[in-house]
Amino acid sequence: MTVTSLLFFLCSAASAVIYRRLPTRWRNLWLVAVSTAFVMTWSWKFVIVLLIFAWINFIIGKKSSPTLASFKGWERAGIVFNVLFLFVFKYNGFFLPEFSVFLQSIGILEPGSVIQILLPVGLSFLVVQNISYLLDISNKRLKPETDFIRFLVYILYFPKLLSGPVERARVFLPRLDSPIVFDRSLAERSAALVLTGLLRKIVFANPLFNMIPAAAFTSPQDYAGQQLVFWLLAYAFALYNDFAGYTAIIRGVSLWFGIELSPNFNLPYYSRNFTEFWTRWHISLSNWLRDYIFFPLSRSTMKHFPGRNHILNFVLPPVVTLFVSGLWHGLSWNMLVWGGLHGLYLVLERVPSLWRPSVPLDELPRWKQNTGKITTFIFAALAWVPFRMELPAALTYWKSMFVWKSPQLIALAQTITGSRLLSDWTGFNIPNPILLVMLAAAMIFDHFQHRAGREDFLLGSPRWVQVLLVIVLLGASLLAFFSDTTAPFVYQAF
Amino acid sequence: MQPQEENLTKSTKTHSLLVSIIIGVALFAFLLLALETISRTDWFARKVSTRSFGIYHSQFEIKWFKLEDYVKENGGVDVLLLGNSMVNTGIDPNVLSAEYEKLTGEHLRIFNFGVEGLTVSPTSVIAKILVEKYQPSAVLFVTEMRDYVAENGLTVENQLLSDEWFLAQKTAPFTLRGWLKINSSAVKYLLPFRNWSRADFPDTFLMYLRRWGDTSASGYEGDLNIGKDIDKHPDPNDPEEAENFALFQNFSIDSGRLDDLNVILNSGGSVQMVIVTEMPLYPTYFDYFGGEEVHEQYLDTLKAFVEQNGGVYLPSLGWELIPLEYRVDNHHLNIKGAPLFSSLLAEQLASLCNTEGLCMRSSLVAGVEQ
Known about the structure:
The structure holds two protein chains of two kinds. By secondary structure, chain A is mainly alpha-helical.
């Protein structure tokens, strides 16, 4: 069940109504039941895997309590278990073919057949959540959960199951005990989030993804540089709207249960440098990486190599942190390059701080802030190239972006006047005009959110704008309902 | 005023989004209803003709809607021409009708439902639907050897016949989309834009509009191209020809495909006559199948089958009657060849009527209600 389907909203609304009418002691059990049903819409096998995964983490969590002598060992075992779990289910492409050959050679597996392991929905997100849970317990920031049902809600809570946000147990679990009262103002806020999310996903992200020819990611050399530039812009905005849209929808839906989920995006393309970018893009994961990789690593390197400007203190923590981020997205060279590039960006922008004190971003002159925004966006967009495609294609894409070809305007005019047959728009070496309109629309939407300074900015919009957006969303949804293409959430694959 | 107070005033001024959503949904429903109503009027149909069912085969859709318009305009259809792209570009129903009327005095409303890529198998399904819906008095099915090769045309067939619209025509499980595609007029006008966000939308949509415009009211789509090297034998070693040779060189008639032909021959309903014939193919075409002898054997089998099953077999016209420059390739006719062949076909059909009494009749005369 996708979170943009009518069925999802109807089921969620019905579940929320029942949830609110249940006695408090039954509510968590109800959330587990609803979440399990949600997982079962993908596969019943996932339920079994996730229940086993949750049970083991629940036990390890109890054993990781600092009140017990061997808690450090359990903490480490827990981390290893979670990483291994992720490795087996997500990164099995690296070892399964060889393992299958081995099993064939000893006669366990029939010749020619291979073992396949399906990745349970949301596993990457659950693994980082569980690691933070275990670390928080052993670092005395959290007491181990003693109620398995309550812990299951933390793991399986359906709005955040597929693609986060990455919630900390110490933040999430107390919210279960005191749900926010669902009054008119919460209903309005929730509606604003859901509407924003659906607009981002259905009106902006899906069309922008679809407008990029699939071949652009495999044979970029076949296209004009100017087209590749616009397709990269389209991809950057599509990816952002896809994930930010998803997060807004499920945060809105979660409010129906009175449970606030952490924000994940804050207009990342308005960031003035990369340090700021990582406080605005996939915030919950960035915070996790900061707290559980960057800070401990910084502390460790500082201990061994005192001095803030020591090259290792300067380079190692951001680069390693962003490498881990890349690996979390996928065990591949292109993801490593994506992470490495962001690590490099962070290091480079800190270089001036070696000889002069850093000026807070808000205190910089306006032109410097704007230049920073443009530069940050350009380099973030360039880094999306290896995020999207295999490394050889990514290298070709970067190179081909600088090979501009003259637009075939005469051919275009002949086509419009009907004296020439149109076989392929990309042959004109100009971007699809609908793509330009959609890009502009996505930017304007962000501009209004930026100007309002709040994620539920639609609440403050004039009535006619609100109504118009609802009509646009319904129109786009109607066409999408009949469309031959689909665009699943990108981060669902992680 | 303090900034905090300002914010407070601002926030109290905000409109209820929930109310806006309700207004938006209501307005959208009203707009759809209005479109549904307006799109059912003749005025709208005259202004906007392009429609779709959301089927991947846009030419099938063009033919379907053109036929719908044709029937609305002419009060019915008497003869349906069925077949593949050869029929589509090879027979102009207006010429055929005029010539036939000149020779027999019978005015026929003829529509060309030739759709590219279709073999006898999907054509049999389409024929059934069309006959049920439009009750023509005659069906002229133009067939060829490729129709009877079991492996040929399966991709098109599978995609077309598994389409939601086709399934909804049968007693397939109810789907909202299928129901809307069949019953909502507004949806039909919206569906050409369903893939508005696809990278190839400008290409496919403009192509759709062009083909819509190029297809006449009676379903004929002329081809301006003049073929080259038509009289040259295709080379089996040419990579472009290899696929055809591989598919057709061991030609044999598939019994399943003959069953499909039988479905067309027994269309039932109002159909009084099903005529089966072949286009005047240039002899080099038969190289793919093993030569003209194989073709002759095929025609013998076809003739016998058609006649055994109640159809009328019309021998194909001699290929030498159509000059080379009237052809697109060794099996398609161009915009010059189509009128010539149409009038020759009319003569042939008229002679069938005048000499053997096998006449195609107007459905109105035949007493079939439209």
